[in-house]
């Protein structure tokens, strides 16, 4: 068995002013796990993805819009973004999220 490491998600990524920072944790053919840090006011414009994805808020607050409906998430909250549904994100404060995308 390979050496395993225990990590704290909050400590694996740092904020950068007026930016979005990402760090890939797992990148496999069947899916990805990516950690993001958004500065306040930063976001992702509306788009679609061909796969289901889970957003888990590690710290801070975000507004997630899915098919035009807004959802206010805070630390510890999660939401599933269904495949092919338009979605967007806007940081209400500095926030960190774990994005889990399942391709298969």
TrEMBL record:
<dbReference type="InterPro" id="IPR011051">
    <property type="entry name" value="RmlC_Cupin_sf"/>
</dbReference>
<dbReference type="Pfam" id="PF07883">
    <property type="entry name" value="Cupin_2"/>
</dbReference>
<dbReference type="InterPro" id="IPR013096">
    <property type="entry name" value="Cupin_2"/>
</dbReference>
<protein>
    <submittedName>
        <fullName>Cupin domain</fullName>
    </submittedName>
</protein>
<dbReference type="InterPro" id="IPR014710">
    <property type="entry name" value="RmlC-like_jellyroll"/>
</dbReference>
<feature type="domain" description="Cupin type-2">
    <location>
        <begin position="35"/>
        <end position="100"/>
    </location>
</feature>
